[in-house]
Description:
Elements: H1 3-34, H2 42-53, H3 59-74, H4 76-82, H5 85-103, H6 113-124, H7 135-138, H8 141-177, H9 180-220, H10 227-251, H11 253-273, H12 277-296
Amino acid sequence: xxxxxxxxxxxxxxxxxxxxxxxxxxxxxxxxxxxxxxxxxxxxxxxxxxxxxxxxxxxxxxxxxxxxxxxxxxxxxxxxxxxxxxxxxxxxxxxxxxxxxxxxxxxxxxxxxxxxxxxxxxxxxxxxxxxxxxxxxxxxxxxxxxxxxxxxxxxxxxxxxxxxxxxxxxxxxxxxxxxxxxxxxxxxxxxxxxxxxxxxxxxxxxxxxxxxxxxxxxxxxxxxxxxxxxxxxxxxxxxxxxxxxxxxxxxxxxxxxxxxxxxxxxxxxxxxxxxxxxxxxxxxxxxxxxxxxxxxxxxxxx
Length: 302
């Protein structure tokens, strides 16, 4: 890659990192602050976990979300008793623990460090050139293909595809058989399932190209993929973490409302900092009315 290509790649990585941080931080704030009692709902707990995991790209949070929606639809009478807040956070903890264990696997020996060190030791006496500091010079391609891609990505994706297929089949059948009063709730459930399935599709579309490049590198050698193509795949995989907050904003009404509420509060704070006392007083009055209204209202499903 030429010098300008490296500059463009670095700038894009920085922009993606900033977008990822700000977008997923907004998701966490929206769910934890903007949506009342949201953390009592398993789906929103897993969305927070996914937003935090987007800094690490965890597929297990996506799997937990699909299992949650499947259980909610297929055992509705037992769902609330089964999906308690304690069990939900236990599931989140299991996802993070497994992600850490799987991510630390190269530290347990499945890496290129030993061969790299021996090669460098053999050549150090005749040359002062240091070994290359790149991802694939340390992480082995068999690990990336057999363990990471096939075991940790494709296997969960296959399970999630089967779960969402069953979810949409069940919803379609119930919509045909249900009365008009029940259809409104089922349509909300279908809309949320479509939104979460879209997150899954975007994950697959952003990450699978890079994994397929790793397969080509393993089976056909380093000339099978150009460096520019490889770094484009890396950018695409990183961009996935910045896309999810946009999907939530466009597809999930509760998060839309929470985003709007957060932005209104932010603008009000800016006005307050500039001494606009009338705006502050009007907002305080509206906020008090909102709290009083929420206190007299009921809960709703996600």
